[in-house]
Write a structure and sequence with these properties.
The structure is a homodimer. Chain A has 6 helices and 3 strands; from the N terminus they run H-H-E-H-H-E-E-H-H. The first copy, chain A, has helices spanning 10-13, 17-28, 33-40, 44-56, 79-86, 89-103, and strands at 31-32, 60-65, 68-73. The termini of chain A are far apart. Chain A binds a DNA duplex through residues 1-6, 16, 18, 32-34, 42-52, 64, 66-69.
DNA sequence: TTGACATATTCCTATATGGGAATGTAATGT
DNA sequence: ACATTACATTCCCATATAGGAATATGTCAA
């Protein structure tokens, strides 16, 4: 079996750095494809293809404005990633605490 | 160009569902490879290969215990993912607020 | 040393890319 | 109708899988 499709879920979709850049760029407000092209310096077809992937997994939404297509982030689709990583939060906080205690010459737990 | 290597960064490494399962399983405490195999019901070589990827991107660490290899999560490596997703937090909170206000019959912003 | 146990690696293959180039399609202005 | 603008899609290809099977490596026990 090959690797899972980039369109299989949000985790696979955001594995690609350019798609993360696009999402970050869209975090401010909705933007047309051409604006993304100028902003990130990618080829237009490349941007369109990345947007397609993001659209398929629900990470972005679109609306037409004349000849332009305005894309915006759908933040709800990012939440599952946030929630999953959050399950490890207590671990790194604990780790940081240990480092701190060690630095202060105390006994670690 | 093909897709980036799974070992290129944590984002690519956790795109694979089984690797996320392994990390979650290791979140409690360190475990031997055989325990992961039993727990997740995967083939041993498969688990070893996933662990190699996780190890290369720093998501797990190992120590030997006799013939067993005990793997544990390195939570620090998950933080960047958490931080990146967190930059969208205000967006979904805002979105939820709008939904709530609409449900209460108020004007949306 | 030999055998058993625990894990890692190698070989194989079908599959899904991401970028570049070229082309298709939709909407607007005249 | 036609040219132009703005995107989307298709074709091609080098590359990196993930799983299965087989094998190699490392450690302990007798």
């Amino acid at each position: 079996m090959a690797r899972a499709a980039t369109t299989s879920d949000a985790f696979n979709a955001v594995a690609e750095p350019r798609r993360r850049e696009i999402l970050s760029f869209l975090a401010g407000r909705e933007h047309a494809v051409g604006e993304i092209v100028l902003s990130l310096g990618l080829e237009q077809p490349s941007v369109s293809k990345h947007l397609r992937v993001l659209l398929e997994v629900g990470l972005v939404e679109v609306r037409r404005d004349g000849r332009r297509m305005l894309y915006r982030v759908n933040p709800e689709a990012i939440r599952p990633l946030h929630e999953w990583t959050r399950t490890f939060e207590r671990l790194w906080k604990h780790q940081l605490l240990q480092v701190k205690e060690r630095a202060e010459g105390k006994r670690s737990v």
